[in-house]
TrEMBL record:
Pfam families: BTB. InterPro entries: BTB/POZ_dom (IPR000210), SKP1/BTB/POZ_sf (IPR011333). Residues 36-130 form the BTB domain. The gene is LOC112465525. This is BTB and MATH domain-containing protein 43-like.
Length: 217
């Protein structure tokens, strides 16, 4: 793993967003959770975990009484480990540079949905749309279905509608019979998005976050 675990000192020096909605989510600077993944450990402050507004991480902050949270049994595959690692990086730093890795974006979208990290999820959706093509449009809308990614779903449907004559003959469009009716319903509803989506796809990524994607070997 190329990324070194973050120290408690680093987590204390982070700038945190205050959650003004409830005192139950206010934690002292020194309160933190140590996430254990195999032989690696990552210390993230509870303030930072709650600032991301994730029900998963808020629940850990409120209910997990031990300092360490062992994720080894929960994270089974390399994809799961790498994606969770990147989520922790995002929470600790507020940024990541993953838009150049299409496969990582797909995995990270799935993980962001699973762990309820909405801001990261939407960022993944936006970047994935800049990779949409005739060949992978159906794959992306199916990913949107499974990840409850409405932004990706809506704009993928508009793209499919705009290029339906080419896409209808692709293997991916003909194979997913269980999703075909849903796809057809969505593209019928996407008429108003055709022009705006066409313009969207012609623009370079506008999200200004800069991240460093750390590989896990």
């Amino acid at each position: 793993m190329n990324l070194l675990p973050w120290s408690t000192e680093l987590s204390r020096n982070m700038t945190y967003l205050e959650d003004s909605t409830s005192d139950e989510f206010r934690f002292k600077d020194e309160e933190s959770i140590k996430f254990i993944i195999g032989e690696d450990q990552y210390v993230i402050s509870k303030k930072s975990l709650c600032a991301i507004n994730s029900s998963y991480f808020k629940n850990i902050c409120l209910t997990h009484k031990e300092i360490g949270k062992d994720m080894t049994n929960e994270l089974v595959t390399n994809k799961e480990i790498r994606s969770f690692h990147q989520i922790l990086l995002y929470i600790a730093t507020g940024s990541t540079d993953f838009y150049g890795d299409y496969g990582m974006l797909k995995d990270l979208l799935t993980a962001a949905d699973k762990y309820d990290v909405a801001t990261l999820k939407l960022t993944c959706e936006r970047y994935l749309l800049h990779y949409i093509t005739i060949d992978n449009a159906v794959e992306l809308i199916q990913l949107a279905f499974s990840s409850n990614a409405k932004f990706l779903e809506t704009h993928s449907a508009a793209f499919i509608k705009f290029h339906i004559e080419e896409i209808r003959y692709t293997e991916t469009f003909q194979n997913p019979q269980e999703d075909l009716n849903k796809i057809m319903e969505l593209i019928e509803k996407s008429k108003m998005l055709e022009i705006s989506t066409h313009q969207f796809f012609s623009l370079p990524p506008t999200i200004k976050e800069t991240f460093t994607l750390a590989e896990i070997h």
